[in-house]
Every structure is written in structure tokens, then in C-alpha cells.
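ok trying this again, last paste got cut off
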Amino acid sequence: MKNHINRYKRYNIIFIIFSFFFLVSCEDGKVNIFSVEDDANLGKQLDTEIRSKPGEYPIYDFFEPNQYVQNIVNEIINSPFVKYRSYFPYKVQILKDDKVVNAFCTPGGYIYVYTGLIKFLDNEATLAGVLGHEIAHAERRHGTNRMTKAYGIQVLLSIALGNNPSQIEQLAANLFSGLYLMKNSRDDEYESDEYSFKYLQTTQWYPGAIKFFFEKVKKDESSPFFEVLLSTHPMPQDRLNAINKMILDYKIEPNEMNLQSQKYKNFINSLP
């Protein structure tokens, strides 16, 4: 009788776990134990932590440059492909470090762009392509998908059994320390490139403009200037090929480009 009861309890626990899998967020066949609200809360917590570490993340505290970049984001998130504009703030912060050519986005849509990246780019459309790429990381929920993949079973057991309701916050703090915050899988990078292209189709900018960023980096991939970028964003030729294929598939002609090159040069020259 006792064995029967224990077996029943085990079956009940398994049922709870599988039920939880069906109840949690599931997108394109990917199970994510975090809700969209969790993503937003994680982003807010991480933004607070980032702002508390000016030595590591030097905040560029000038309104007009930040607003210039924010205006680009505001137009991109009006794309019909952006689902979480009402849930995520999609707030931009420039970080002052001319030696870092990089940008990153937390879960929940907090975007950070280094001055090194801004000054490296040649036109506004390429910046829009990069920002669209970062928005896609939040929209496709790559951060919490990665956390689920890494710790999902442990978290599911704890939540299902009610043993540790604060484990999600603990795992988030551990998993998003240091550069892990910015690391994405190769598939995540491809997907973000694809969605950046989709987002820009409804904007004023050339949808394939992110290719100019890839092309410029590829000219000098061995430079230490790109060490951080290449450690967190793999830059294979395949990504450039994929963008070029989308340009061909959508029949976007070079004469349809809107790069806003002079406007962007004026912006860079006006930086304090």
C-alpha cells in the first residue's frame, strides 16, 4: 500500500511538471519557463544594476544624443512584427567608451549602445539595423530562453514542488553576470539579423543596412578593437550571406536605399 502511495505521488509530480511545461510561455516550439512579465522585471533589475556600476558601464549622460538613438528605436518598434512594445520599455542608454564597438539588450528591452559603435558606423540606417538586431533579442526572448535551457529542469522541479519560489531571481543574478549578459547562440544571432531586416521594412531606412556593419568589421576582424564584439557576437560570412539573400529575395534595389549618411555624420560631430 505504501509503495502504491509513493508511486502515486511520483506520478502526480510528473503530471505537475508536464502540466507546467504546457502552461509556461511557448513560442515557435521553444519552451520558456519565464513569462513576458518576468522578462520585463529582469530587464528592470539589470538596468538598475548596470547603472550602479559606472566603472564597468559608463553612462553617457547627455539628453540629445540619447534621444537621437531613442527616436530610431521608437520608429523601429512600430513594426507589425514587434509584439511586446506594450510590455517592454525599449529604452536606450548610450555608454561612453570609444574603444568598445558593441551594443547589447537585456530581456525586457533595455538597450545599451557604446560610443565606439556609434562612431564606427557610417550612416543612420546601419545603426537602425544594429538596433533592430538588439530589439529582436528581446522580442524573441533569447535571454530567458537561454536561461530556461540552462536551468529549466531545476527551476521546474523547484516551482512544481514549491521548494524555492525565489529561484528564478537567483538564477537570473547568476546567469547574467559579466559578459554572459551579451552572449547569444549562433542561431539567436541569425534570427535577430532576420527580424532586424523585417522590422526595418516598415521604416524610412534601408532594411539590409546591417550588412554594411558586417562588411566593415570583416575588413579587420583581427584587430583588438573588435575583441569584445567578436567574443559576444560571432561574425561568420554566413550571416552576411543570409542578409544578402534576403535583399535579393525581397527584391530591394540599391537605388531604394535610405542611409541618412550626412545626417548621421552631423550627429556624430555634434556629440559632446
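PB: full thing came through this time. Residues 2-269 form one domain.
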